[in-house]
């Protein structure tokens, strides 16, 4: 029996059905490796050391639907150790600040 990683992994889908299948696949592949798995409810960020975040971005680089929040703010406010972001590359590039 292998030992689980003594960390909490979290999953947050901010894009609804667009990323539901990706989240399900990642959850099945990754969650068994960690002692704790937390799955967010709608548009919430779960408590975790490692977060898989499924989202779209606005052209400014902010999370879609949250004009003043980007991945940096999510990582800092949630005190994440690792943040993994899944998104669809936009047809229109991000604006550089």
What tags apply to this protein structure?
97 residues, alpha/beta, 4-stranded parallel beta sheet, 23% helix, 26% strand
Task: Summarize the structure in words.
With about 100 residues, this protein is of the alpha/beta class. The chain has one domain. About 25% of the residues lie in helices and about 25% in strands. The chain has helices spanning about 15-30, 70-80, and strands at about 5-15, 35-40, 50-55, 80-85. It has a 4-stranded parallel sheet, with helices on one face. The longest helix is centred in the first third of the chain and has 14 residues, at about 15-30. About 15% of the residues are buried.
Number of helices: 2
Radius of gyration: 14 Å
Poorly predicted spans: none
In one word, what is the shape?
A: globular
- Count up the domains: 1
End-to-end span in angstroms? 49 Å
The beta-strand count equals: 4
Helix content class: 10-25%
Average pLDDT value?
85
How are helices and strands ordered from N to C?
EHEEHE
The biggest sheet, with number of strands, parallel, antiparallel or mixed sense and barrel status, is: 4 strands, parallel
Q: Strand percentage, roughly?
A: 25-35%
Q: Give the spatial strand order of the biggest sheet.
A: 2-1-3-4
Strand pairing plus helix content: what structural class? Answer: alpha/beta
Briefly, what is this?
The protein is built from 2 helices and 4 strands. It has 97 residues and is α/β, with parallel strands linked by helices. It has one domain (5-86).
Task: Give the SSE layout.
Elements: E1 5-13, H1 17-30, E2 34-39, E3 50-54, H2 71-78, E4 82-86
């Amino acid at each position: 029996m292998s030992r689980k990683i003594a960390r909490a992994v979290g999953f947050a889908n901010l894009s609804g059905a667009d990323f539901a299948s990706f989240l399900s696949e990642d959850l099945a592949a990754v969650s068994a490796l960690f002692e704790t798995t937390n799955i967010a409810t709608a548009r919430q960020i779960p408590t975790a050391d490692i977060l898989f975040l499924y989202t779209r971005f606005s052209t400014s680089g902010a999370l879609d639907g949250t004009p003043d929040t980007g991945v940096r703010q999510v990582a800092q406010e949630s005190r994440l150790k690792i943040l993994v972001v899944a998104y669809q590359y936009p047809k229109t590039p991000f604006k550089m600040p």
